[in-house]
Amino acid sequence: MGHDVVCVDNDELKVAALQGGDTLIFENYLPELLERYRNIKIRFTTDLAEATRNSEAIFIAVGTPQGETGDADLSYVEAVACEIARSITSYKVVVEKSTVPVYTNEWISRTFERNGVSPELFDVVSNPEFLREGTAVSDFLHPDRIVVGANSERAAKVLQTIYRPLTSGEYYSRAASIPGSCSMSEPPPLIVTSTKSAEIIKHASNAFLALKISFINAVSNLCEAADANVQQVALGMGLDRRIGPRFLSPGIGYGGSCFPKDVAAFRSVAEQLGIDFQLLSEIEKINLHQRKRFLKKVRSALWTLREKRIGVLGLAFKGETDDVRDSPATDLVQMLLAEGCTIAAFDPAAMKRAADILPADANLRYADSAYDAARDADALLILTDWKEFSSLDLSKLNKMLRYPIIIDGRNMFDPQVMMKNGFTYLSIGRPTVYPLRDLDATSK
Ligand SMILES: NC(=O)c1ccc[n+]([C@@H]2O[C@H](COP(=O)([O-])OP(=O)(O)OC[C@H]3O[C@@H](n4cnc5c(N)ncnc54)[C@H](O)[C@@H]3O)[C@@H](O)[C@H]2O)c1
Asked: How buried is 365 (Cβ within 10 angstroms: 0-12 exposed, 13-18 middle, 19+ buried)?
């Protein structure tokens, strides 16, 4: 956008890798952008004091993992706030970018004051981030909205200036801009709210998206019981503009480093504030149930699981990312291993990270390709919605499998196509199909 950026992390290995040209995570556009701006507009350091002194705004983007009772663990935010406080000598805007519960802004301010920083020397602003992993760069540069929670006009102005290249549309007129949905004529809106509202906007947004996923998952279970087709139901629902088609894809439930912990943190905030928000517990309950239901589906297709050879496509928590944090896919692999299955798993980007939590052994092999994962398997499971899985050569896949059974936890294929290609195909919320040649079975 044109700003000078210093990225600080206390993980020396990460910083050294970034300085050396590594991007560390699999994320579209990130390698090109870092290549273009490294050491020109962006640099990496472990020296927080120096970065604080030289910056007008300091974005806090440290992790806020789930604590033992579901509440957000804010110890990283507190630690970094103390460190920033010790280095402040002139006015700074401290921007809370991590996803945090309501009242965190006030705690950061209090921490600054406790560390002897005079209130005239800082403002704390909440600027929640809505990007999705896999499309992080374009989501950030083409946001649906930018939310700035500020209780001071001076601080709000600094944030408005930072985002002006986007909100004025000027960024989108540049030759080197990253493409996306915003444009010169349709720039993103920036709304200024109170700090508390901004904090709640982030948690409420993620909880609402998780709700949509759990809702369609519950509907998909109902469709299975009634022999209906959830894809048709979702189409019919999503065309209603008040509902919208997105986040109405049933599957094995949401995962990743955000939705599970954010829904839990929001539930915990509600509890602490004495608000009865049972709906949030139901969202979580349906989500976890969905994984167990999928395991049952695998069992229903294979009769028994002990010593079955299972091919697995996908380990990341969703497609186009290498993130396996709280991934339903790795969770299911663990459940299948516990049932005595032997697994050959393939993921286009996440195998290295998956191997850190699930090391290869006699029962778990990381495959070289999707076809290699399918080799001699009693069934192939699709657990992550990588786009590239939808263009697999189905006849080749069929030949690789010992039994042509696919159990698709992400509804990536058209059942009719799978039937014509000779598969027994089980998916979520849609009737199971059997190979075309097996006429008795198709009429079941
Ligand atoms: N990942 C996403 O898609 C996403 C989207 C929106 C919001 N968020 C929020 O952003 C925050 C960060 O998420 P993430 O996925 O990037 O987490 P992460 O754990 O991958 O990264 C956090 C980084 O902070 C560093 N760190 C911790 N304490 C530090 C300190 N005292 N000084 C310097 N560096 C320190 C860690 O070393 C780590 O590199 C979370 O609150 C998350 O909820 C994430």
From this structure: middle
